[in-house]
Amino acid sequence: MFNYTFLSLLLLLVVGQQTAVGQAKGEVFPYKINQTQLPNGLNVVTVPYNSPGLAAFYIVVRVGSREEVEAGKSGFAHFFEHMMFRGTDQYSKEAYSNALKGIGASANANTWWDRTVYHMTGNAGMLDKMFELEADRFMNLKYSQADFKVEAGAVKGEYTKNYASPAMQLYEKTYDTAFENHTYKHTTIGFWDDVVDMPNQYEYSLEFYKRFYRPEYSTIIVVGDVTPERVNALAKQYFGQWERGDYQPQIPAEPEQTQTRYAHVQNPNFPPSLSLNFKGPAFSIDQKDKAALDLFAAIAFSQKSPIYKKLVVEEQKVRNIGAYGLDTRDPGLFSISTSLLKAEDMDYVKGEIERVIEQYKNQPADAKLLQEAKSRMRYSFAMDLDSPDNIANALSQVTWLTGNPADINRLFQLYEQVGPQDIQNAVRKYLVSQKLTIGTIAPAADSPFKS
């Protein structure tokens, strides 16, 4: 689901063609989306918004840990996000930071399975400087081997800090267990052995930059006190000479899962946890399965649901319970997760979750609850579109999934088309034991469900 999950038109075919997508009746995104594709394949998106003197500048690179197909190279997309702040001949790391301060801008970035996103918000009157700074590092990044090793140490420290948490350990084990071949098997930060070896991968880092930091992988999104004419002119001026690449990774296909798998973390001092993780569908604006499971989660496991009332409020056997399916370009996981008060209640809680799943397999969802869930989803999304940064962020999410920010309206149109029978069909298709990986944190040495 687009809005809940992240709590939790194809690219133009005619070179240089410009389009503007406005709001049609019933569309959830209320602003005109202007798109231009440069001859080198760079997509440029502009959304004028009434924010006097303020603009958000995003670059979405459709490269994440999904593209890390070579053995021993997991975590490189995230690592390279760090390297992108190391400077160029024209702007050192310190000079880049000072230039941002000089135009009243702040910059950051983040990486996930399917993308890396660079973003800044600042003075719209200094938009040309934003373009200059970003074009320089995207085309002319330069760092020493010593700088590379320093950053590799920082990433190792980040891994050590994050994965000290049993919850993060289970997250890592769950995906490692659920997937055999696909690169969703490793988390964004990478496998530990690969992180440890990163200081020795300087030459590969140069190859990674050469492969992926190319215009055909990238989309610029500018939102705020701007015009399409100004943005397009600056994009052509600063990014027009960016050379197109020719590398296309071959993402390994995931074989069909045929039996339940188990991921377990032993820890007697951490709250017991249980998650049922089913192989689910990829994000789609055409097929209903993912949208149907999103709406199933919103109905069956919301804070208004009977199981929440029973387990959290009345019986107080769990601290929380929820369901979600992360939006991914390839088939990922649909998860139902809960934190328990006592490990001995794990089997009972699992049985209650399974009872809800069976209920939705045996009868269609309630039409009234379904419509309420759709309305909440649209309202929540629309209410968050209140600043250039939030608008650019919303568009960036659908951009890295489909390549086209205008697909946001098609997504919500798809949600509207989902009926009770679609939910029943999706639950029957995906929420089955053959597609299941059970994740647990408990005092026992092994999973309490593994025979």
TrEMBL record:
Residues 206-376 form the Peptidase M16 C-terminal domain. Residues 55-188 form the Peptidase M16 N-terminal domain. GO terms for biological process: proteolysis. Residues 1-20 form the signal peptide. Keywords: Hydrolase, Metalloprotease, Protease, Signal, Zinc. It comes from the Bacteria. Gene3D superfamilies: Metalloenzyme, LuxS/M16 peptidase-like. It holds the Pfam family Peptidase_M16_C. GO terms for molecular function: metal ion binding; metallopeptidase activity. InterPro entries: Metalloenz_LuxS/M16, Pept_M16_N, Peptidase_M16, Peptidase_M16_C. Belongs to the peptidase M16 family. PANTHER family: NARDILYSIN, PROTEIN YHJJ. This is Protease3. It comes from Cesiribacter andamanensis AMV16. The lineage of its organism: Bacteria, Pseudomonadati, Bacteroidota, Cytophagia, Cytophagales.
